[in-house]
Specification:
By secondary structure, the protein is an all-alpha fold. It has 2 domains: 194 residues, Serine Threonine Protein Phosphatase 5, Tetratricopeptide repeat (Alpha Horseshoe), CATH 1.25.40.10; 73 residues. The protein contains 13 helices and no strands.
C-alpha cells in the first residue's frame, strides 16, 4: 500500500546566534521564528490507497492549509483509528500549527500502529528537538536513519542527528554527521551552514568563517550576520564592518515580520557600534 504522506522535512529550532530562519529539516511552528536547517521538501503527496479523507488532508497540508488539514485529520483518525498514515499526517498538521504536545502523541500513535515508519520517527524527533529534548530526539533520528538511509527521509534524519548532537555539545560527532549529510548532497549548503554555527559555539572563529563563506549565496543575511560576529571576536574591524553592512542590506530586502526586522536592525546597529570601537586590525 502506498502511503498518503506529507513529508516531514522542515524543522524549527532556534538560531542561537542570529535568531532567524536559517537553512533547516523538520516541522515549522506557526508564528515562531524558524531555525536550524533541515532538508528541502520532496514533492507533494499524491493520491494513494489510503482512505479518501487522509488523501484530501495530505493535499491540504501540501497546499499550506494546515488548520483545515488538522480538522479533517481529527475526523479521519476517529473514522480510521488503525491508520498509521492518518495519525502521522495529523502529527504534521499539529506541528505546523504549533501544537507540539499533541503532535508528539500523534506521531507516537502512528509508530504504535506501524513500528517500521521512518517518516513518523523523523517527525517525532523533530518535535522533540523543537521542544528542547535533544536526547530522545537523537534516538528517533537514528531510528529513522537506520530504516531508510538512502532516501530524503534518511538524509533529513542525518542532518537532524547532527543538529541534536550539537545541542548536546557532542561537537565532534555532530560535525561528522553533518559532513556525511554534505557528502550525500554536495549541492545542499545547509550542513555547511550548520557546521559553521557549531564552530561559532565552540569559539573557533576562523574555522567558522571558512564554513560560512560557502553559504553566503544561499543564506546571505544569516551568513553575513554570523560572519560579522566572528570578525568582531577576531578584532578585525574592517571585515566586521563589511559583513555587517552586507547583513543590513540583506535585511532591508528580506521581507521579515516588522518585529523581527526591528529586532535584527537593533542587533546589527549594536554590532556596528562595537566594530567602530575596535582599533584597526
Amino acid at each position: 500500500m502506498r502511503r498518503a504522506l506529507f513529508p516531514a522535512l522542515l524543522l524549527v529550532c532556534q538560531l542561537t546566534t542570529a535568531g532567524l530562519a536559517a537553512p533547516a529539516a523538520g516541522l515549522p511552528a506557526a508564528g515562531a521564528p524558524a531555525a536550524d536547517t533541515l532538508l528541502p521538501m520532496p514533492p507533494a503527496p499524491t493520491a494513494t490507497a489510503e482512505p479518501a479523507a487522509v488523501n484530501e488532508a495530505a493535499r491540504l497540508l501540501a497546499a499550506g492549509r494546515s488548520l483545515e488539514a488538522e480538522q479533517a485529520l481529527q475526523l479521519a483518525v476517529k473514522a480510521h483509528p488503525q491508520s498509521a498514515e492518518a495519525f502521522y499526517n495529523l502529527g504534521l498538521a499539529q506541528s505546523f500549527n504549533g501544537r507540539h504536545q499533541e503532535a508528539l502523541a500523534s506521531f507516537r500513535q502512528a509508530l504504535a500502529l506501524r513500528a517500521d515508519f521512518p517518516e513518523a520517527s523523523l517527525g517525532l524527533g523533530t518535535v522533540l528537538l523543537t521542544l528542547g529534548q535533544p536526547e530522545p530526539a537523537l534516538a528517533a533520528f537514528e531510528t529513522a536513519l537506520a530504516r531508510t538511509p538512502d532516501s530524503p527521509t534518511g538524509r533529513a534524519a542525518l542532518f537532524n542527528k547532527g543538529t541534536a548532537l550539537g545541542r548536546l555539545q557532542r561537537y565532534t560527532e555532530a560535525e561528522l554527521a553533518l559532513s556525511e549529510a554534505l557528502a550525500a548532497d554536495p549541492d545542499d549548503p545547509s550542513p555547511a551552514f550548520q557546521i559553521g554555527k557549531l564552530k561559532m559555539q565552540q569559539q573557533k572563529w576562523e574555522d567558522a568563517l571558512g564554513w560560512l563563506e560557502t553559504t553566503a549565496t544561499a543564506f546571505p543575511l544569516e551568513t553575513h550576520l554570523l560572519s560579522g560576529k566572528a570578525y568582531l571576536k577576531l578584532r578585525n574591524r574592517a571585515a566586521a564592518e563589511r559583513s555587517l553592512i552586507q547583513a543590513a542590506a540583506c535585511l532591508a530586502t528580506a521581507g521579515l515580520a516588522a518585529d523581527t526586522q526591528a529586532r535584527l536592525t537593533r542587533e546589527i546597529d549594536s554590532l556596528r557600534q562595537e566594530a567602530a570601537r575596535l582599533g584597526d586590525h
